[in-house]
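Slide 14.
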Amino acid sequence: MKRNKHSAQDLKEDHERMEDSLNLQVYQCELDPETGTTLQVHLYKDVKNVEDVRKNILNGSWKCVIIKPALILDPLQIAVAANRAVLSEKRNTMTTRNVYTEILYNLSLTKNISQSLSKFGIEKDTDMLVCFLKKSEDYSSEILSKIEGEACPVSSLIEFRDLRKIKNVYKFNGIKCDVDLQEMLNIIMSRMVTKNIISY
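Slide 15: predicted structure.
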């Protein structure tokens, strides 16, 4: 059987190489080669025009997805969700209406689409991760210029994540309390990719 060239392990190795080489102002990760897509993640805080951002996301005029940073332990979590989303789009097997909402759905453990979108997507939070799927055309600069907030290095995500909320969302009750962050990330990614066959 031909091995998927960009499995979760491959994404993890790419991610570790990037962390060694730069301070991650912007997180960038090449997804499965057959999709020709690169994930790009930006982090913003104290956004003043959240309602305008939300409106542009909901009406589909912005080609990106907004994710709550409090629920993201590591950008690799987003890369795994995005990789599954672009592959589902290419194979016409998406569960949601577009590839960006598919990322939110893949981040969540629930199979309820509306709950997935509301839990991980934009609401009234002034801190946000702005994620693009880049192919030949790049709309990111135009969209980012309209966000009235402070751009932060993605490597500072540690200051925004909420471990209590993350453990609650990913059902860590019953798991030993002293689990380290790498093990925690591995558990999260495993649960994300198996949610269609296992109920958590």
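Speaker note: The radius of gyration is 16 Å.
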